[in-house]
Amino acid sequence: MNRDEEKLLETNERLRLLYEELEKKNQELSKLDQLKSDFISTVSHELRTPLTIVKVALSSLRDGVVGELSEKQNQVLETAFRNVNRLAHLISDLLDLSRLESGKIRLNKRSIDLNILFHEINHNFQKSHEINNIQLDYQAQDVPHAYGDPDMIIQVLTNLIHNALRFAKSHVTLKASLQTAQPEATASHTGPFIRVDITNDGSGINPEDQKKLFTKFVQLNRPMGGAGYKGTGLGLSICRDIIEHHHGCKIWLASSQENVTTFSFTLPVWDENVYFYDVLKAPLIEAEGEISSLALILVGSPSFNATSGDAHTNEIHDQLIKSFRAKIVNEVLRKKDNVLPYLYQNHLVLIAKMAKEGAIATIERLKPLADQVEISPNQHLEITTGYAVYPEDTADAMQLFHLAMENIQKRTS
Amino acid sequence: MKNKRILLVDDEHDFLEMMLLRLQRAGYLVELATDGSSALNKIAQFNPHIVLLDMLMPGINGLEVCEQIRLDPHFQKIPIVIITAAHQKDIEHKAKAAGATRLLSKPFESEELLDLMDSLF
Known about the structure:
The structure holds two protein chains of two kinds.
Chain A (H helix, E strand, L loop, with lengths): L2 H60 L8 H32 L7 E3 L1 H14 L7 E5 L6 E3 L1 H18 L3 E9 L13 E8 L6 H6 L22 H10 L6 E5 L5 E8 L3 H19 L3 E7 L10 H21 L6 E2 L8 E5 L3 H16 L2 E3 L2 E2 L3 E7 L6 H16 L1
Parallel strand pairs in A: 2-4
Antiparallel strand pairs in A: 1-3, 4-5, 5-7, 6-7, 8-10, 8-13, 9-10, 11-12
Helix pairs in contact in A: 1-2, 2-6, 4-6
Chain B lengths: L4 E5 L3 H13 L3 E5 L2 H11 L3 E5 L7 H10 L8 E5 L3 H11 L3 E4 L4 H11 L1
Parallel strand pairs in B: 1-2, 1-3, 3-4, 4-5
Helix pairs in contact in B: 2-3
């Protein structure tokens, strides 16, 4: 072995040791991070019961359950109430954040019509006293449906609108638009996406403060412990974590000298194939872990095919699918089974933890159920069915669907 | 809400005391149980219209109590509310599978509790 080779071996060995050390440190850090998340989760959880007792006790006092209070006593009580609610928000935010950071959260992603979502959010804000003299406008026409967890997106929007209303002089606007490519900062996601902007005409935010805004417990215009609005300082961190849980999406802020501040975030465009993969992923992993079977059962019908009729015809069509789906859920499936809420390639998709025999028995029970559904006088719902089973037929989600489609052909020919 | 009976099950004495005060004032007849076993013993005799069950209790937990109540044909349709300090999304599946009608997340206010009771009658 010559000197160069010896040196190379020595360097390699040093690198190996350094790598091992780094790996060990990483593991220690992950463990500490997990401990921190578990601690926050446990503490938040434990705080909720005493907090409920205090809230119910205070509201009993306020509502005169144990006797009338004087004006001064009521004032003191209101201060206590306000601060108990503040504590409740803080605990709730801490728990949300720890769930998001620990990765324990399971998103319930669906197709989202942002126009309807904006309308509902606007309606809720109009009812609240927060809106004061600020005008809240929204616009999401001609934007395709987004793909995300609607409850979580409502949480993000509500949080951002709360902030915008606090700083706005007269206007807050909420706008969704279709973009063909992600902004530079979000290069991990390709293809079209939906961009949502929440803009207010407030006092603007200087670049130094902008950098701090997504940091936990940072609240602008209010140093910790100082006077002013009593938020939790966790809202934007929660928003960022929620958005980043949506297929590489991003949230950011732009604030100009003209005193206009815009918070923007991206969301994926609804794609039934992505949804189909996502929804099958968890039960497939579970079935693999338990070494059990998973059946994919497809139910088609000429009556399911998309209509291009008027609004009334479309509504009847949607209602038919909805009610037949509900019948399957209530009368055929077990509680742990699932039917996708949307048609996939014009078929109802049933996912059930069962082997071939179970799938066949389930299909047998679907036919009489369809006979009970009348689509016009003396005409009943006609269905076609097919199935494929994991892992007996295939281990691939898409292949499972194709085999179930082939099975429909076989069963009808 | 006169003569409507509620069985309230929780192991926290202070919680029971506050809830009792509020529910009785709203006109409900309330029977208390401090654990799952005594709830199951009392239910047939008290014959409640609604059961309010804390999820985390020593011994049999709220979900197990719920499952056992549902085994009795007489109580298959009775509204059962699970009171929980956990995140709603984390347990709604389990609660549904156990046969619960609704979830009530802590911390809640009296209005929320009373509105929920109203909606279940």
